[in-house]
Amino acid sequence: MTGAVLLSFDGVACRRGGRRLFSGLSIDLRAGEALVLTGPNGAGKSSIIRLSAGLLAPDEGRVAASASPGLLTHDLALDDMLGVERALRFWARLDGVEEAAVREAMDSMDLMPLAPVPVRMLSSGQKRRVALARVIAGGSRLWLLDEPGVGLDAHSLTLLADAMRRHRAAGGGVLAATHMDIGLENARVLDVGAMA
Ligand SMILES: Nc1ncnc2c1ncn2[C@@H]1O[C@H](COP(=O)(O)OP(=O)(O)OP(=O)(O)O)[C@@H](O)[C@H]1O
């Protein structure tokens, strides 16, 4: 594999709540690749996502990631008083993203019919689609997705899989923590539970 390295962990150890989750973790994620984090509740999957995003510092080792990764967590981080399109445009302006990219991302998550609906009125699956549209519109090469499939119906899971396929084909990389099959083809799998 010759693609640019988008994310690398070198000998990383992580402690949380007084417990060592893992140590000696070394991984690389290159352009076009996907890595799926699996393992039981509390294994440390979200912690790896947070380490990758720079929101958590490693106790040992080194983490290097592409600047400004696209991060999907359980927090929606959108103004829930605004309509879907306005809420996404607000972030797009901060991220320096063109309006056309927002509409394209909304379309890819089948959100155009919901464009004027206030975020607070959306169902949990619809909110997750909006959060995914924000990541897609953001244009980052590195996507860090924590449980991206939660709450999505079968059609929306297909849209997510299509979006990840296009992203990788365009030279992006995907790191995803998930308990379910999210349709990532040719992904490597890291069982975080087996690292304790
Ligand atoms: N802010 C925190 N302070 C202290 N401990 C924390 C904190 N956040 C998480 N932990 C602990 O770190 C461990 C790993 O949590 P993490 O969220 O990374 O697991 P996970 O594999 O993503 O779990 P799940 O499948 O439930 O989402 C858990 O034991 C958790 O209690």
UniProtKB/TrEMBL annotation:
Residues of the ABC transporter domain: 7-196
InterPro entries according to UniProt: AAA+_ATPase, ABC_transporter-like_ATP-bd, ABC_transporter-like_CS, ABC_transptr_haem_export_CcmA, P-loop_NTPase
GO BP of this protein: cytochrome complex assembly
Superkingdom of the organism of origin: Bacteria
Annotated Gene3D superfamilies: P-loop containing nucleotide triphosphate hydrolases
GO molecular function: ATP binding; ATP hydrolysis activity; transmembrane transporter activity
Matching Pfam families: ABC_tran
Keywords for the protein's UniProt record, in alphabetical order: ATP-binding, Cytochrome c-type biogenesis, Membrane, Nucleotide-binding, Translocase, Transport
Protein's UniProt name: Heme ABC exporter, ATP-binding protein CcmA
Annotated organism of origin: Tardibacter chloracetimidivorans
Lineage, opening ranks: Bacteria, Pseudomonadati, Pseudomonadota, Alphaproteobacteria, Sphingomonadales
